Amino acid sequence: MSKHTAPSRVNAETSDVPIARLDVQDIEQALAIREYLERNGCAVVVNRKPAVGEKYHIICGGEEFVQATIASTPQKATKLFVVLFLGNNKNIPESLQETHIKIAVVSGTTISTRDINPLFAYFFTDEDNIFYLHNSAPPMVAVKAFDKDRVSRGIGEMLSGLPHVNQTRNIHMSLLAIGIMVAPLIWYIVSLTIIASVQWYGVSALKKGNVTRAGTIAGLTTYWLGQGKGALAVIGFPVRLFGQGPLIRSEERVLSIIGDVAEAQTKVAQLVTQSNLVTPRLFVRPDEARGGEVSLAVAIEQARLALDGLTNSLGLAGAQLRLIESDGTFPFTISFVKRMTERAEVEINSALSQAGAMRNLLALYRATGGFDEKKTYLILLQNSMELRPTGGFIGSIAIMTIADGVIETPVVQDVYAIDGQLKGHVDPPGPMKELLKQEHWYLRDSNWDPDFVVSGEQAAWFYQKETGVAVDGVVAVSTPVLTELLAVTGPIDLPDYNDRITAENFFGKSLFYTKADFFPGSTQKKDFLGSLMVALLGRITSRKPGDASGLAQVASRALGSGDIQFWFGQREAQAIAEQAGWAGTLTEPLACQREDAPCTVQRVGLVEANLGVNKVNAFISRSIKARVDIDEDGAIDGTIAVVYRNTSTDDASLGSGGTYLAYLRVLVPADALIVSATMDGVEIPGKATSLSAITTPYRDADEIIGGSAAVAALAFTVPPGRGRSVMITYHQGIPMTFTDGQAAFVYTMRKQPGIVDTPMDIAIGYPAGWSTDAATETFANIREVRYNTVLDATKTFIVKFHK
Description:
By secondary structure, the protein is an alpha/beta fold. It is built from 18 helices and 30 strands.
């Protein structure tokens, strides 16, 4: 088969073309190899076993990767080659030399297109066991101007000697030749235009869960992708003759990206199909049968494999998109095309992030789904309208059991009924005793620590002491999750209440049904929240859940923002949750691990608790202004200012408005010294020593939480219709350092669960003698980097300095 008729990778594995398996440690290192194989009629499978036997197998990577891949892969390919990146190490391991496999040794970090021909010439024709490939090649020799003139004169002399009647014929023949040359270009443009159109419809179909239409569109994409490849092959031959090979390579990468995206859409369609089959079987009543042709464990494994393929395709597309941007060839230098390319990269990265979240969720489900023994989990329904450190006041709880992957319908209970069973006394945290006037500590207030690793375990402890039932884990769900789910599922009818609940009226309805004539121990709250939860689960797990993509986005956003948090007693499950960033920990993996230069980190955050026994947080808005100033010696001073606004009225008859009594903890680096704390420009006084004499505002004693954060604790009120401005300043103990004139500064602002979309402005000032690519000059001797954004998830900003 010629390279002009090479099929796309969407269906290549089921055709008769030769299969080339490519196992690579770094996708970008092997792009040139992959492009060469595809141009010469091979279907390339990257980092996975093909559906049918491969004809060629190429392993590309460092010493450890190559040895591990050879050891774990049966050598069934007709030809097995190794491309070994040794870097500065000149010695080839004896274990590799003894394999008698052809090894091409690369001393650089990448393989260029110039290296491809000698590389494959060695693979297919040379007898040596080892071939040293150097990443340097002589520059291309330009055609001399004298030669161009001589050719032009020769052609002119030939044409001038023909009769005049033949000149007209020659003109016609020239026009025909030009038409033949231009036709493939036009056909290529037409192919790309049609592909762009059908891809748009494909994405729309997947968002609506229309797998049938998505499959049809994938077939159309495959056909027009083949048309585009054929047209480009015709165009490429003369273009390369004129020394414009990079232009064709960029277009080949575009087609390869399209193929990767089409394959990714196919994987997404498989995931949607799998999800529609599995989700109705996840939630059942205890007396319902658990049928199904395939076990949930097998279905989850099939979904994991589809996710692997999806991640691989998106990763390849992203890698090639970055290469196109770095090449800077036409038309990708045009501003409009460049913006489209950057937008495509953002979309691919977003899809990769969601795919990663799905992989983590499947791994977590496999570890916690009761496949070895029945599991029991405590769900905390946190009302964010009465804000608490991990998301909201625990007004209701639910018990969920799961066995063999099947989740029984959660049983919702009023937390006051559970707390009434506590025997004995537990001292509450100081602020609860001082501001809530509460003498005992119960499950409903167990989420006092902002680190859910601590609060989750505390909630499990209280539940066990109050009920005698030990749970295997705790899941915290904050109010924003319910409102976003309602926005996706649409209105939910509750026949028991003869009412319809929507995202817009959820707050008012929940307030009415849980507070009207409510007293501790009432079942009203349990009945309303229980009915709503069961109805929501029924809608989500139905075979026509509505916007499947929307539900996935809600889950991804809720997990990323901390509005869903996990704590597990099982070490494996807890490790998965922490690695995914879903455990609500204060200490997370540092971005410094990816930086070569000396790295200084500031991780800050705000932790609020509403201790006013009302639902006023629905009326509280806030904005954050933070600033960091670094002087010439690397000393760091920081400021965090928060402006609050209470838009409620004095009417708190239903507990929905009134004064906001806030206990605010400002988290700064553990080595920082809190310099000052002010409210409306006035220094906040210390707390009175006598409990009866305590009044707000006051500043509590500074403390260290978990060894990872210093805390400035403040108590204050925001009356109805009023605003407050709270500001703290601090000095970081460890200065910033440079190595070889390089340094990195990492600033992370933690988002509190239960709070939605806080406007945030961050400025990082530095001396005039320093520089950074992200800087904007404000004054002659003052420079700063500024970020205006919304705190909808924990945000990290990295600034690299040079001096």
